[in-house]
Amino acid sequence: MNIILLGPPGAGKGTQARRLVDERGMIQLSTGDMLRDARNSGTEMGNRVAGIMDRGELVTDEIVIGLIEEKLEGDTGGGLIFDGFPRTLAQADALEALLSRKGTGLDVVIEMRVDDETLVARIIARSTCAACGEVYNDLTRPVPDDGRCAKCGGMQFTRRADDNEESLKTRLLAYYKQTSPLIGYYHCKEKLRVVDGLGEIADVAASISEAMSKTP
Ligand code: AMP
């Protein structure tokens, strides 16, 4: 089964995608992670997108479609979770074409709804285990007292350069202006399922499982 997790920054897409990887052996395709990897390894493309990402703007369709195209050349047998992609209608069209070329398609698009106030609170307090990507929140889920990641025992935690109020404003604007039209698009294609992204991680995961069981 191939799904898209759609939602604004801080909606919990990455957290829920990692759960689906652990529980169902699906493959997470996060363009945000791919772009951060490119930056960290100092590739020419990584250097080109660094400033755009830090400001919270979208990088070009061409770059992210290229990244996804490359990943789709590998094994996709366990089912795919698109996390943070597509973010524009052009990306959605490209995804459809790429999947159809592989003889497959999208099953469900899950929109994770969270109010703006919660998004800001989540993002400003967010940190991530450098080793495994587990997400923590200073207020609601702090790093354990022993300073070790509850999942992998890692002791280094990072904050994203774009997790600040200024970039977040731009990221939210980009979401509402460029990405939210996808909600209507997938609704018309009868692929859209809406889940409440507030509440406990396990409860949101249960809603996502239910939404996935209702394939068109
Ligand atoms: P994310 O980790 O999904 O929040 O993405 C972090 C940043 O990477 C975004 O603010 C954009 O600058 C860039 N980015 C990630 N995915 C895309 C995409 N599908 N289209 C354009 N820019 C993207």
Strand content: 5-15%
What structural class do the secondary elements suggest?
A: alpha/beta
Number of helices: 9
Each distinct ligand: adenosine monophosphate
Span of the ends, CA to CA: 12 Å
Mean pLDDT: 94
Largest sheet: 5 strands, parallel
**Helix share bin:** 40-55%
The total count of strands amounts to: 8
Oligomer: single chain
Q: What is the H-and-E element order?
A: EHEHHHEHEHEEEHHEH
Spatial ordering of strands, largest sheet = 2-3-1-4-8
**3D shape:** globular
User: In terms of per-residue confidence, which ranges show pLDDT below 50 for 5 or more consecutive residues?
Assistant: none
Using only C-alpha atoms, the radius of gyration works out to 17 Å
Can you walk me through this structure?
There is one protein chain. The chain is α/β, with parallel strands linked by helices and 216 residues long. Helix content is 48%, strand content 15%. The chain contains nine helices and eight strands. A five-stranded parallel β-sheet has the order 2-3-1-4-8. Strands 6-5-7 form a three-stranded antiparallel β-sheet. Strand 5 and strand 6 (135-137) form a beta hairpin. Helix 1 (13-24) packs across helix 9 (201-213) and helix 4 runs parallel beside helix 5. 31% of the residues are buried. The mean pLDDT is 94. Adenosine monophosphate (AMP) is lined by residues 9, 31-32, 35, 52-53, 56-59, 64, 84-85, 87, 91, 162, 171.
